[in-house]
Write a structure and sequence with these properties.
Elements (H helix, E strand, L loop, with lengths): L2 E5 L2 E4 L4 E8 L7 E7 L6 E6 L6 E3 L8 E6 L4 E6 L8 E8 L15 E2 L3 E6 L1
Parallel strand pairs: 2-11
Antiparallel strand pairs: 1-3, 3-8, 4-5, 4-9, 5-6, 7-8, 9-10, 9-11
Length: 127
């Protein structure tokens, strides 16, 4: 069992940065692949980024976040981060952290392949 708690969300102006954190606890936390998803109002939850258990492999969604967002992890702290730079109003969403016992190096995991989810943290970017 893995428990996930996100933090770091808030209200920022466009162009600013935020760093989200996801604290994981449980027996398998450090061995789990981790992902960030987001859900904007009226839209489906979508993949943002993921990282394998040792941080050596990552995936990002399309060009909308590449170069602006960075996923990382500190297994000594059982924490995964999402550094978000140059934020845009369209990044406004609830951001969710997720953990999985799976990892495929050829493609990012889909939502159904994650076994544990956090409660989400709100990110609001004003123009």
């Amino acid at each position: 069992q893995v428990q996930l708690v996100e933090s770091g969300g808030g209200l920022v102006q466009a162009g600013k940065s935020l760093r989200l954190s996801c604290a994981a606890s449980g027996r398998s936390a450090s061995n789990a692949a981790m992902g960030w998803f987001r859900q904007a109002p009226g839209q489906e939850r979508e993949f943002v980024a993921s990282i394998n258990y040792n941080g050596e492999e990552t995936f990002y969604t399309d060009d909308s976040v590449k170069g602006r967002f960075t996923i990382s992890r500190d297994n000594a702290k059982n924490t995964v981060y999402l550094q978000m730079n140059s934020l845009r109003p369209e990044d406004t969403a609830v951001y969710y952290c997720a953990a999985s016992r799976l990892w495929f190096g050829t493609r990012p995991l889909v939502q159904g392949e994650y076994h544990y989810w956090g409660q989400g943290t709100q990110v609001t970017v004003s123009s």
